[in-house]
Design a protein that fits this description.
The protein contains 13 helices and 14 strands. The chain is an alpha/beta fold. The protein starts with 21 loop residues before the first helix and ends with a helix. The relative contact order is 0.17. The structure holds pyridoxal-5'-phosphate. The site of pyridoxal-5'-phosphate has 14 residues, from helix 3.
Length: 385
């Protein structure tokens, strides 16, 4: 022990750190002590059942990640080598990478301004064009970006007209609704993530849900190395090792119990940012689209430099200097080097959101003081100090 008094800098404020506590710790240890470690067990079954009920779906299969859920979901709806799949461009790479795992090609679709999600009109036009040419995509990946549902009414109508399945990437949207229905209930299948930064976490994990259990039963089979019923190891198909462990499922059950509180907290954080930034020229928060209740997984804003007098990058760097993590919006996948050469549809909405966007700390464990810290730092830079 030294005799000097250390003046501690406030801890760095992160974008969306895990929000876990005594209940998750107890659940994890209880599962450990139960002996169900290797790796499936009763907590997996319960987590699946409670999760399915929560999103109003008949089937749910707990998996090792959201990416695994997207991979199995795309495979289950029939995506395979040589296929095209329409994918929202303004998203994380894991919305599209599983398309590539299956030997198919993503075709990136621009966002609409109302939801920042894929534009249903662009999808409808593209499906009509491709139907005429006899080359329909094998699926459409709709992403509920930052926890806001895509505009499913026109989107599902367009896809149903050509019998094209929709894979809903609801990784950021657990707890959101669209016209009264929960996120995750819109696709032929839907994927969720329990990565450490998501609305709820199992440290790492995911879930595939579907309106009937045929698809999720098949997902469970494929995720367990496609092991046939036999006393020895018998395999007629290529499977994966994608199941969630019983220990992590126990943590997920505890997290699921506080889902409503966690979502309510993220919404309050967005409301606090909105109130603090109201009237600031050139600063706009991501719109909450009519008819939906987003999770506000991350509060994002756009900066018009001509009006605000700063760029999103300058704001981000100022926050960084204040010990606050902020991040640019998802870089559109059509601009990622790995997807150079993939076709794209639409204009520059997603590009503009990326160029001007900034995501603010939004974790459900934030205190009012934390939010004030961000608001104060933003104000300093916007006032030119
Ligand atoms: C986090 C995320 C994923 C991937 O989930 P993991 O559990 O990290 O594999 C997929 N899509 C979106 C939109 C995400 O935000």
């Amino acid at each position: 022990m030294s005799g000097t008094v250390a003046v501690e800098a406030p801890a760095r404020l992160l974008l969306s750190p895990p929000d876990v506590g005594d209940e998750e710790r107890a659940a994890l240890l209880e599962a450990f002590d139960s002996g169900w470690i290797a790796p499936l067990g009763p907590s997996v079954d319960r987590f699946e059942a409670e999760f399915a009920a929560r999103v109003g779906m008949a089937g749910a299969t707990a998996l090792s990640s959201g990416t695994a859920a997207m991979h199995l979901g795309l495979r289950l709806v029939g995506v395979g080598p040589g296929d095209d799949v329409l994918v929202s461009t303004l998203t994380f790479c894991a919305s599209a990478n599983p398309v590539a795992y299956l030997g198919a090609r993503p075709v990136f679709v621009d966002s609409e301004r109302r939801t920042w999600n894929l534009d249903p009109d662009l999808v409808a036009d593209e499906l009509a064009r491709r139907a005429a040419g006899g080359r329909l995509p094998a699926a459409v990946v709709a992403v509920d970006v930052l926890g806001q549902c895509a505009d499913y009414e026109p989107l599902l109508a367009a896809c149903a007209a050509y019998d094209v399945p929709v894979v809903e990437d609801a990784a950021e949207a657990l707890g959101a609704t669209y016209r009264g229905r929960p996120a995750g209930s819109f696709g032929t299948v839907a994927a969720f993530s329990f990565n450490g930064n998501k609305v709820i976490t199992t440290s790492g994990g995911g879930m595939l849900v579907a309106p009937d259990t045929d698809l999720t039963d098949r997902a469970r089979f494929l995720a367990s190395q496609a092991r046939e019923v036999a006393p020895h190891y018998e395999h007629a198909e290529i499977g994966y090792n994608y199941r969630l462990s019983n220990l992590l499922a126990a943590m997920g059950l505890a997290q699921l119990r506080s889902l409503d509180d966690k979502v309510a907290k993220r919404r309050r954080i967005k409301a606090a940012y909105a109130a603090a930034l109201a009237g600031r020229p050139g600063i706009e928060l991501m719109p909450d689209a009519e008819g939906g209740e987003p999770t506000n997984w991350l509060t994002a804003l756009t900066v018009d430099p001509a009006e605000a007098g700063v760029t999103a990058t300058e704001l981000r760097l100022h926050l960084d200097g204040c010990g606050i993590e902020a991040r640019p919006m998802w870089k559109p996948l059509h601009r990622q080097p790995v997807y150079a050469g993939c076709p794209r549809i639409g204009g520059e909405v997603a590009d503009e959101i990326f160029d001007r966007g900034l995501c603010l700390p939004s974790g459900s464990a934030m205190t009012d003081g934390d939010v004030d810290r961000v608001v104060t730092a933003l104000g300093e830079r916007l006032d030119g100090r």
